[in-house]
Protein 1
Amino acid sequence: MDLTFAKEDEDFRLEIREALRGLVPPDMARRTRQRVHPTKADLKLWNRILYDRGWSVAHWPKEYGGTGWSPLQVHIFEEELAAADAPFLTYFGPRLVGPLLYTFGREEQKRDLIPDILTGETLWCQGFSEPSSGSDLASARTSAVRDGASYVINGQKIWTTEAHYADRMFCLVRTDPSVPAQKGGFSFVMLPMTDPGVRVRPIVTLDEGHSVNEVFLENVRIPASDIIGEEGRGWDYTKFMLANERITNAHVPRAKRDLVLLKEIAASEYGASPSAARDEARRRIAQLEMDLDGLEWSVLREIINGSKNPAIASGLKIVASELQQRMTDLAVDMIGARGRIFYGEDDFERNDLPGNPGEYAPGLAARQLFLRATTIYAGSNEIQRGIIAKQQFGL
Amino acid sequence: MDFRLSDEQTMLKESVDRFVAQKSGFEQVRAAAAGPEGFARADWQTFAELGWLMLMIPEDLGGLGGVTADAALLAESFGRGLVGAPFVSTAVLCAGLLARADRPRDQQPLLDAIGGGEAIVALATEESSSRYGLDAIAAQAKPVDSGFTLSGEKIVVPDGAAAGHFLVSAKLAGTIGLFLVAADAPGLTVRRYRTVDNRRAADLLMADTPASLMIADALAPLERAVDEAALLLVAEALGCMDAAMSITAEYLKTREQFGRTLSKFQVLTHRVADMFVRAETTRSMLLRGLSALDAGPEIRAAAVSAAMVTAIDAGEFVCGQAIQLHGGIGMAEENAVGHYYKRIRAIGRTWGDRASHARRHVDLTQA
Ligand SMILES: Cc1cc2nc3c(=O)[nH]c(=O)nc-3n(C[C@H](O)[C@H](O)[C@H](O)COP(=O)(O)OP(=O)(O)OC[C@H]3O[C@@H](n4cnc5c(N)ncnc54)[C@H](O)[C@@H]3O)c2cc1C
């Protein structure tokens, strides 16, 4: 066992910090702090900036465009990105479909699709959930029917994040209705969002933001070669992606940045001299910091010497999602009555904002509201608890 | 002790429940909330016709002389129906303060206008760094020939956007005075905006704004009135919880996953059971608070803070879990449960928050 950070890793951190200095345009940094839903322009631009340095998919193997850094170095890199208020790159290409493609994709798919994920030229969205199939994903009904050299897709997806930004969707479909999902009934296809059979309808969430959508698929015809990997392996691929999602969704780097911001908010709201209100805020921050330390070390254990234990991944998802919620709960609590004000994302640029808030206040209440979703998406926390009971204890 | 409603209270409850049942389908609520004032003036007129706006005005000033427990019946039902009208702030809080003015008879015209539904009045106490402290303010009153002028700012005035008048706290020679300011007074800038619960608030910027003195030594009456209003927020929160709970239970009976209704998953039914227990405790704390309203100021304040802390925690749990148990659909703006949650969030930072109430309780109950 070696429980120290190596000198090279510390040096690496300083190098990265130096390299990132001034790289995030200040207005982009402010948007990252204030907005819970990144703009498409920021996602694209930041992807490009990272790509130019060879860093847009730092966590990937080198042969596909990654950096070849150690998992700890990738973690350090992501921490430094978050500390610089860089937008978190779109999830779906770099985190989900990219690894799926280089792990299971056919050679020509790797060749044709991966370059545009690296640059951010193609944005993807994830078509898993359907109106009657959320937690019970295996009951999904969207179908892809073979017709000569094509598949014809019909069905409906829902809660599709960034469908309105995306050029392509990777879509879980039933290719063989006669067998269950787990036994080869599902496949993954990719489809162009510009197809006339694709209709995207926005869903406004309770924070009044727009990141999720309904996607209606009506006779969308794709070439048979646009099935990802092999037909019938959709369920294996789903499990592969969800396992990745649970760990990266811990978002430790962003949480560490948020902790710093919480301390800044506390200093600004409560000043430097002791008071009961200040003491209480500081105690709550300390509790969050301890909990975040625990989460971080759990994540480090998993990314450095992966246990591959699904119960561990599910546990990380539970801890991280609840921690993210508690952090924004506290942020809103600290801004007092201003926490009641609705600041629309389009208002942030104005300088006569209601309540004369500090720079940090606009966006917090909306963020707090949107983060109610962290315990629902990527497998609800109830489902994760079920997985732990089953996988760890056979219950 | 007798916890049953009187005959009059039963009638009042029936009438408000009927109003809410008719008027507050979720679509209607959203339409009203989308209007410029966040509520429908037509509903406000109905309130006046039903006598609700004079309920809390004393009989000798032409009102019905109701008690806070009566108003709580209305507030609870408004919570259930997400009714956004400024009942608590105008018809209870400001009407109550005007009735306790140093010269209440002078306020008769304004009280009549409140009772008749013509006047909306909002209380402006919060400032940039007052953190709910009614005495922690900087706004200043200055005596002039014609009366007083006020200078300073107030922020996030509840229901401030529709108000024709404000009751404004300001420092006056070593005390806190309470002043009446017209919304169109010279030297007053009103910035109106939306709050997370889709209501409307306002910031006031006052520069030598003419004002008339209502209460010269206002801190104690203000604390009493705001405590009463806080209890009505507890009642409203209870209505929100009740509605969110029943919508959720209904959803569990109909939504299917894994080939059965969600109601077959015990973790979810137990969650609803916990929601119920928390809501019932809130009801007990509301009644306990009501019983202490006319006790000494310290007993009253501790009981109100205890009720608020209970309601804020319970509301966060009940309405937050209502979203959780709905899954994705609970996150949609089109779904009612999120709106109950947002109202709870707003209630929990109106005239005090969990932390300020918990601290006040400590200060009042521990050496
Ligand atoms: C903001 C947001 C973004 C999303 N982004 C995407 C996306 O990009 N792509 C995509 O495909 N999907 C996305 N989703 C969908 C998300 O994965 C689903 O919402 C989630 O899987 C839950 O499904 P559901 O909404 O149908 O809820 P349901 O499955 O109906 O669940 C309702 C409630 O029942 C509980 N429950 C269900 N089954 C059980 C059980 N067996 N035991 C105990 N409790 C149970 C759940 O925990 C929940 O509390 C997103 C969702 C949100 C809110």
Note: Chain A touches chain B through 46 residues (CB under 8 Å).
Protein 2
Amino acid sequence: MSVNEETSISPNDVMLQDNQLRFAAENYLITEAELLDTWQLDKWFALWAAEGDLAYEIPSTDQPDADPDVHLMFVRDDRFLLRQRVRSTMNGTNWAENPRSTLRRMVSNVTAVERADGSFVFKCNFVVYRSQEAVQQIFPGHSIYQLERGGEYGFVIRHKRSVLDLQELRPHGRVAFIL
Amino acid sequence: MNQLPYIIDDRETPKFWVNRATMVEQEILDLEKKKIFEKCWLYVGHESELNKVNDFRTRRVGGRPIIFTRSATDKINVLVNVCTHRGMILETRKEGNARNMRCFYHGWQFNTEGRLTSMPAEEDYPAGWKRAERCLPRPAHAASYRGFWFLCWDKEQTQSLEEYLGNATDYIDLLADQACGDMMQVSSGTQYYTMHANWKLLVENSIDGYHAATTHNRFLQMVSASVKESEFDARKGSKARVGVRRKRTSLKGNGTADLGNGHVSIGGSDLSKGKSRGGLGRAFTDSHLQQEHMLRRDEYVKLYGEEWTDRMLGGRNMLIFPNLVINDLGMGATIRAFYPEEPGYMDVTSWEISPPDLSPGLHEARKSDFLTFWGPAGLATPDDVEALARCQRGFESYEIDPWNDISRGMDKSEDELVGAGEVQMRVFWRHWNTMMTGAASELEAEIEPYEKVEKSDLIVRSRS
Ligand code: FES
Ligand SMILES: [Fe+2]
């Protein structure tokens, strides 16, 4: 079963969606967006589960439902690689983001469900506007999160997949910030 | 165009300079299309992208739309993706499986061999009109070497693909042999991206052996952190040390090989004898993987002997002139083809290629490790994308200082270099210059041409 199938919301779920949970999810995702846009990546990394496996993924644009062990992705970070991604962006060796671009993302269409095992699935759409010198870029997409209770903000991220709603990464050429 | 030569190949001083106008000016790009992309064999795709009969993939090669198919009769075809009726793009999907492809404009239908199989109101055509004459056109030539398919648009091309590839076939073998007699497998999932830079900058960058220390500092930080992490794991538990050895790969300078026809490679042999992975990359995350890697190596040694195995595992970056790069860093391998849409803008397409029968652990590591370096969101490629775009911006001042300096190592042998040289780029540029000006250089080659390994007694090609 693909991540998408597993986490899509059935008509039943829509009726049963817990408004409070959705409100909490929205707050959470807005906070996350703020941390990413303001380059507070250490704080952002603290949103992730402190122990155990985690995964941050971006599929290739031609395989949005990619299985990481079958398909070539853009990103499939485990804890170690994600920490490296954050660290090198903060220490200035991520040249594509040094000097840092100006980012602003819109997060919307948020849904949130609690699963039988007590974990949560949040989904949202996003648009990131990126400006660097005279270049403006738009990165539309959607994200699927698997979370658990805990942490400073009520939830910790176990798995995040950001899918670019682009058929090719053209003319953008690269995604060197965190989606 | 400024009135200066494309290159200055001065053997006295010595120095090697490249005119930045070659990266900027539209008329030079127009000439390149005519004299290089219309003449050379160009990469189309890998056979393993078409695993089932009637699989097809569409792409642009040398600026023209093509369909790459496996026909119902199990033959690979390279067809022009343009309807022979009145010229619409025939197949509009990127990939798929279909016995017939139908042009939606008026309904002409072609099979995966390019044959016109049906059309509405065929009876209305004149008496002498023949369906058989309206098959999909094909490039002048199409051929493959070990699953790598190429086309050539030039009817006058007299070199077969193998002649054109010259000594580069050895370097393709170093990758293809990793499948132990099977066919290497390109995974599905394609990285379609761009660089806002002249295409030749990506040529240079792909065989630039010394930009990593500065440009890919980020990646190298990851590599050393991964070594520490694996050493830490080893201390904590009973795991064997799985770290990266400091000197894993023998590099005489670059290990440059001039493969003829403008093809060139840099790389080295794995000196660790499998105790760590050759090439470059994240340390194995656990001792299990290290053992699996050793087993895999044993299998290679049995088939190919020690020397070829060490070369296979050493890693290398290769340019097949003009626009195909095959890089194998031991931790993974990428195929990358690119094409200039404008002097300062190219489309880049990258694929991942692996042996089909790796153990699950090695397979997973390979899929993951690829992305630590390559691709538009890896820990290295985006820095190349950025560097090249910034060069292109720099070239806006080319009339002030028109010269790029590619002289490094020119008066030294590779053994004498403290870092890595640039002779591989000079090999490219000299060939480029010859094709563009029609005048072969009278100067002698800077390095001895690579000689193919005599394989018959050294290497057993297949398990069977
Ligand atoms: S152009 Fe294709 S059917 Fe007419
Ligand atoms: Fe690079």
Note: The interface with chain B takes residues 58-63, 66, 68-76, 78, 80-81, 84-85, 87-88, 91, 93-96, 167-176 of chain A (CB under 8 Å).
